[in-house]
Structures are given as structure tokens and as C-alpha cells.
Amino acid sequence: MPSPSPVVSRPLAGTCLRRTAFAAALGGALSPWAALAAEPVQLAPVVVTATRSEKTVEDTPIRTEVVSREEIERTNARTLRDALENVPGLQLREVHGKSGYEISLQGLTSDQVLVLIDGLPVAASTGSTVDVGQYLLSEVERVEVVKGASSAQYGSAAMGGVVNIITRRIRPGLAAAATVDIGSYGDQNVSGRAFDIGSKHAQASVEGGNEQLRARLSADALQSDGFSTDPDSWPRQGDAVERQQYGGRLTWLPRRGSEFWIDASAYREDDEQRYLYFAPPNYIPQRKTESIERNRYAGGGQWRFDNGLRTEVKLLDERYDSNSQEFSNSFRTASRLSGQHINHAGLQVDLPAWYGQLWQFGADYHRETLTQTINGRSELDDTDAVRSSRELFAQNDYIINDTWELLLGLRWQDDSDFGTHLAPKLGLSMNLPAMGGWQGKLRASAGEGYRVPNLKERHYVFDHSSLGYMVMGNPELKPESSTSLQFGGSFRFRERLTVDLNLFQNRLKDLIQTDLDNYTVVNGIAVYSYRNVARARTRGVEAGARWQALDSLALNAAYTWTQAQDLDNGQDLTRRPRNMARLGLDWEATASTALTVRARYQSDELVSTATGARSPAWTTMDLALSHALGQGLSIFGGVNNLFDRQRDFTDGNDFSPLVGRYVYIGARYALDRTR
User: Fold this and answer.
1) Residues in the chain with pLDDT < 70?
2) What's the rounded Cα separation, in Å, for the pair 267 and 130?
3) Taking CA atoms, which of 71, 184, 370, 441 is between 20 and 30 Å from 646?
4) SS3 label, residue 590
């Protein structure tokens, strides 16, 4: 589960911590907390995603989940997918037909969840879905997750929530880090030998500078041979994959309150799938390879003035190219080239505090282009598919008094193909009076989500004539929309026990999906298309608790109940489990040795409304052990999926965990001479 805030040994300052951003805008000092004798105090992390401004996670009026750097290192996460798998209520699914993972929040799909890096969008691996397995973690400070409609803050595609990757700020001085680890899939190693190395990983970074100029270089590489339930046979249930990510960042701080930065990163991936295709009476060996290149360039600057005014500018240029080759036996049957190009520019102005109000204004420009060919022929209804949008937003964070805070947001979007749209949001929070060691905060929000159809849904021609069908893009699609309601609270008892509860409901209109009922037959080929065919509702309960049982022992648990229905026919939506649970244990066994346990449960889920087929429930558990050797050096090891709970690969309706038991060991070194 996402780790707690780090425990510090001195009492914190500030009964006004819940007003951190407002107090900072006023330039006032924070008044002291009353010390809680003999109790550890947790320093709440600062988050930015929910309100596009800095607030402590406890004080933000919109609930935010945080995966901290401490949690990433405790669980030895290597990709963003690994970092997110213990977030309560977040579902990970394999991307259809590819080696990767997509996310679902509160019953809404990955197309409806916006993924950002430092507030700037990420290119989707398939033109619609972001593969969270394609981001490595060497530069990540934390990951923030906001559930529910966030279109007022971030525009289209944020109707189901936002996942924002926050990279580390570079401090003056010198810091360096390196990690290496190796692992084995046991009997499923493709070599057929249980003690062989099946996966390798290494990452390194160096950063530092002075008060005005700072820089960072980082590199991360992951190689997996894949795995097979029968290493002597042709198919591999786990793809062979090599991933590499390189990054560099330069920051200039000419004076206090001003910062300019440029960031460049390159991602490379080579993937191979091996499977069999049944052409009666024989099974034919098939192979698919994919080479991916992502080049991302970002930059920006911010100015903070003495009167509290803050201005920020961000720019992004990202290209994502994929080259897929399909082979039957040794003969190439298809060559697919896909290219995406994103340009994004954003401006945000935060006004000085005025009568308890923090006004924020901004503008965004977004443009994206998609090209895709198969065997030299365009798979789009035009050579290039292009869309752009111009957006304006305004927000007022009104701190009424020590008890009440009101957040009002509105975004106007003018899309090149769909015209204008307004997305409002309202959030209200209330600090409960402290009683008998308890402190609490209630939160309620209502917002409208909005998503324009992506370029593939409108223009892509998915030609599987050899299998008897085609899926055609539909340029007449209308945007999806949703209304999201969230209500809950956070309660804390003497820094030892924290309890969270949230109720949610999302009503969706004009939901986009493949229309399976209305199709035409052309030359014996069934031709399907996307349609706005459904109204849907997702609703549920999210509950969580963290107990600092001892100074050295912390326990946490979370449970999510979700009901997702098609309101047109009353049936459940597919691939939405009704129940999900998370359990965690963090034990500092000695001053230098730590044990981490993470357990996950997911109930059965509907796979097909036509047949009623369901994927079975499953439970997994991960163990991780680390030991500090001193002088910045530590060793670690662990077992993922300890009880080897794996799907039945002969059952096409089984979506239980793909990877069985995985055992690994590694070492980590950190040098920190920053100040």
C-alpha cells in the first residue's frame, strides 16, 4: 500500500498546517502544534495535483492518494505499474494485444484516466491507453492519484481521475544513487532451469549543483527473458522485453522565487511475443515483435513575487513511435508503423491571497497527431489524424475560516473537432473539532468529467479480415461526459491511527464502446464500429486504515466496493470487480533491517454479458526484506506472488495474475552530500 509520511522525532509546528498554501501566500509564520507527549509525529507530504497548488495531503480539499519514494524503495518497485499496484481501489489490467498494463479507477477505464509527468500529459502507447509498465522510476519522487472527475483542473481525459508522476527536485550539493537486482521465475524460466536469472534491472543517477545552477543525469534499464508454463514449447505466456530510459534535467534559479528548467528523456523498448494460431488441423507458431521509441522534451519556468503573485509556464514536445512486425513461422505477415506527436503549452497564474481567497487562472494549448500504416497502407481514414484544443481555466480556493474551505473550479475547452465545452467542479471541506485525541476532516466534491473521442476511436481501421471481422473508427462520435460525486472524511487519533472513508458515484453519458449489436457484413466480413451506445453508473465505498502499532511496526488495510452498471440494460459492466482489498505491514525489525509485506485481493469479475462468463477471484502476497550495511549501501531481496497464484492459461476468461512466483535479490547505494 502507499507508504505513510515519514516519522520525525520532534513535534511539528502549526495548528495552521491545514492552511499551508494560504499561510505561505500571506508570508506568515506557522504557529506551533501542541506537542503530543510520547507520540511519534508524521510529517504530511505536500501534494499539488488536486488543486494545482501546494498543500499538505491532509489539508487538500480533494482527496489524494500518495505513493511516496519510501514506498517505492520499500517494495522495490521497478516500473510505474509496480508502484501503483498497492493503491487502494486501483485496478491494473493487461493492455489488449500488447505487453503492458493499463489502469482503472472507480470503475472507469484507462481511456478516462489522465496520466501526467509533472503536470504534463504522457503519450498513450496505443493512441488511447497509457501503458504504465513503460515508465521506469529512477527520477520519481512520488506518484499522486486523484479519483473522480478532474476535467475542471486538467481538461479532457481526466473524467475518471488523474495519476501525476512527480519527479525529484534537485538540491544543491552532490547526490548519486545506483541499484542493481536480478530475479528468477523458477520453473517458468524460458531456459527450463529454475535457478537461472530470468530478469535483470539496473538504475543509476547523479545530480547536484550550487544555489543557482543544478543538473541531473539518470539511466534505468530492465531486461526480462519472459516466462513459459512449458519452457520446451514454443509459446511464452510472458513476453521477452528490454526497456531502457535515459533522462537529463537542468535547473537555473537566478534569484529566490524564480526557477527555469529543461528536461529531456528517451525511452526504448524491444518486445517479443510468441504464441500459437490454430489453422485446422495444425497449430502454427506465431511471433510478434515491437520496437518503441519515445522522446520527450519539456521545459518551463516560474516566478514568485514578493507580493505573493506566482506565474508558471510549461512546454512539452513528445514523440512516440512504434514498429510492429508479425510473423507466421518464419514468414513476415504484417508490418505496422505507428507514430504520435504531442505538443502542449500551459500557463498558470496564482494571485496573492485576497480576503481568504486564492485565485488561480490559466490557459492550455494541446495538439496531437496520429499516423499509422500496415504494410505501407494507412490504417486511418485519412493519412494523418489531428486534433487540437484551446483551454482556459479558473479556480478559487476560498479558506472561509479555520473550519471551512471551499474550492470552485471551471474550465472552458474549445476543441478543433467538437467545439466548446464547460467543465465545473466544487469541493467543500470541513475541519472537525479535536475531541479526546481525535482530529478529523470531512470532504465533499461534485464535478463534471469530459472526454473527447481519441484519434483511434474516430479514425482507426482495425482490419482483421483474416479472422472474419473489422473494427472501423467513427468520425461522428460525440464526447463522453460524466458527473462525479465524492463524499468522505479522514480521521486521526494521536498520530497512531488514521482512518479514511469515501463514498463515490460517477454517472456517465454517451459512453464510447464497440457496438456489437449493429454491424454489417461485407464480402463475408463482419464490420463493427464505435458508437455512443451506453449510459452507465459506477458507485461504491473506499475505506482504509493505518495503525502505528509500535514505533517500529505499522499496519495498514484498505477495502473498495464498486458497482458498475450499464443503465440502458441494467447489466453489470465487464472487467469491474465488485470487491478489492489491500493489506500491508512495515516492520523495522532492527535499526538496519526492515520487512515489508503487501497483500492484494480481487473478487471475481464479469467477462462477458453474452455468456455470463466470469474471471475467478484471486489473492496474492509479496514479501520484501532490506538490510542497511552502512555508508549508504544496502542489500534487499524478496518474493512477489509468494503463493504462486497464477491464471489458467487454457481458460480465455481467466484474468487472474499473469506472472507467477518471482524471486529476486539486489543491492542499492546512495551518496547524499546535498544541503
Assistant:
1) 1-43, 97, 127, 382-383, 463-469, 515-519
2) 14
3) 71
4) coil
